[in-house]
Amino acid sequence: MKIEELVHRYEKYEHYVSPTGLIIGFVWHFLNLRRIDLFFDNLLVIFYLGVAGLTIIFINVYLSGRLRGRFFDMAAVIIPFVTQFAIGGLFSSFVVFYWESGSFFVSWPFYAILFFLLFGNEFFRRRYQRLAFQMSIYFTVIFCYLVFAVPLLIDRIGSNIFLVSGAASLVIIVLFILIIRYIAPQVVRQSRWWLIFGIGGIYLLFNVLYFTNIIPPIPLALKDGGISHAVSRSGANYYAQIESRPWYLFYQDYNPVFHWRPGQTVYCYAAVFAPTKITADIYHRWSWYDEKAKQWVEKSRVSYPITGGRDGGWRGYSLKQGIVPGKWRVDVMTAQGQILGRLSFEVVQGNSAPELTTVSY
Length: 361
Known about the structure:
Blueprint (H helix, E strand, L loop, with lengths): L2 H30 L6 H25 L6 H30 L4 H17 L10 H24 L4 H25 L1 H27 L9 E8 L1 E5 L2 E7 L13 E4 L5 E8 L5 E12 L4 E13 L6 E7 L5 E9 L4 E11 L6 E5 L1
């Protein structure tokens, strides 16, 4: 089959190929990306970054008039799809990684941005011809990656590490723009103000989202958690006594209705994953909903250190005495206040002991 015929078929079925590839790619990433600190998972992200970068360079060299001929003309039709594919693969990977690291109720604005960029990527193909758009999207994926790649490299997490990630992202994108300016100076000159405002706005947005604790505390992740009547440890195992759940709550690890008797203690169990060699302090923030004031009131905060490397996460628990009936929640969070997960439940006073089941972790 000749190249011209391949290009013709691609243009004919483009509207079917792109969405199908997006769906297949997302499902594949969801099923195969396992741990954020694994070599293969990071190599895949780096591969996508490399493909996206090289195709962006090709597009701008072609638009500058330096590449001429039938082959390059046909390649220029397909290359934006390759760029789109690589960017889609990156956002698909980030959705998987970041989704595991935060609470939807807290981080939904950031998740909304990722989903918009993932599924909106299908409609952006024509815009990949514009340098300012290319660099804005490319800077976004670089920043998203370095937010968790830098902590993996230096075995530390925290606000200062996030600032290092942001600075490194700016350095990389500036060097990339300089490469394009060397090859196609006119293209960069025409877009310089859009580049400054686009990249600067994205950098500012990331910082606002991070320091308002909306960006999930990646590379940490809440692997398991629940509310129980008792937690104990025997050897390497933890055992919790939880209330039996209705069949329709099969997706939840605990019963959100806690049948309580005066003087009883409530326990919160959580397993938090951290990459190997990373240590952190994890907090359990117990809050009760004041129906009169219509607001959540913090009742206690308990902390314990974790060490990374265990697939199922570092296991720990906290307990709360002085419980009263009403709505409660426990936020599993970092020292900075980033929420890994939220365990919500309602305390209902009962006269008899509920049916309990012992589970091991």
